[in-house]
User: What shape does this take?
Amino acid sequence: MIVHQPPYLPPALQRAAIATSLLLAGLISGCGPAGGPPAFPPAPVSVITTETRDVPIALEYTAQTAGYREVEVRARVSGILLKRNYREGSTVRQDESLFSIDPATFQLAQRRAQADLGVAEAQLQQAQRELARLKPVYEAKAVSQKELDDATSSERIAAAQVESVRARLNEAKLNLEWTRVESPITGVASRAAVSEGTLVSGASVLLTTVTQTDPMYVIFGVSDRDHLALRRDVEAGRIKLPADGKLKATLKLGDGQDYARGGAVNFSDVRVNTQTGTSESRAEFPNPGNQLRAGEFVRIVLSGATRPAAIVIPQRAVLEGPTGKFVYVVNAESKAEPRPVDVGTWVTDGWVINAGLKPGERVIVDGVLKIGPGAPVNVTEPAAAAANGKKPADQPKEKPPAKAAVKS
Assistant: This one.
């Protein structure tokens, strides 16, 4: 009788063969009836239950600061600029002298007008005496009516001449006062545009500017598209404005820091700039310490409007598909159901959903990349922290919506 001995295998190959046999046995035992695919366990996911709440809306725009009042300082008379009477960049008070123009010519004009007024007044007195002498003589029929009329006319002409010369004298005094160029407002004076010794030709020459910086204006533009969308949302009741119609405003400075004082929007232009496609709006901010300077670029954030009865879901729950954004909803059979959604504005804790979800639905937040349409899921825990606008301690920083193709 011939006995067949199995071939000798090294110990390492024996262990590998045993592991392979166990793996094949596990796969065979895991197969369904008639050799179907393996039954994988439901994927663990965490969900939030959608609910409605009033969501505050923040609108952010690029803006630029501007002085509350910005005045160009110009001389009212022509002459040689003698002296600059202020320190450039300093705060000046209203009616404070900023420049001095050579007053010699205007002083002479005043003296000449004063002398002319004396002559005119003497002529008026002479005409008045002449008229007073002719009246009793005329009553005695000693002079004609014509002589009396001539005396009366001469007296009136002399009186008018006095008024004319007196006006010319007042004009000379006013021109002399205008040689002292004063600040029309209280504010910060910029550098002088002309130097001493320059011939200033009246109001055509800019001397300097004075800017009132407390309070401070912040100018920003709202695009025509954003303005129309906001108006439609207000008309449809999706957005509710403050009762007084005034939005509150805060500022983010150029270094990213928040400005300590708040302001309010006080002007919105009805016109649209044809070059930029925006309408100008303006907010007013207190600026007692002159922290804001005119011409700075800042970010303005408008608040006070709310979106009533809105549904908000975390950003990581929103996926991007071939036809747009969608979320996974756990249906009654505990399966993942893709649901197209219309995503609205971004708030502090997620996206506002305009359409596609109803209150009380369970939206998958964590584990969305491990599932597909119709896949069974196992809800391990509700994502309560995300629903309340807070992130779990071990939750990584949110990223933009992931792109995932919907499987058929």
User: Anything to note?
Assistant: The longest strand covers residues 52-74. Residues 1-6, 12-36, 384-408 have pLDDT under 50 and may be disordered. The chain has four domains: 43-54+309-403, 58-68+211-307, 76-102+179-204, 103-178.
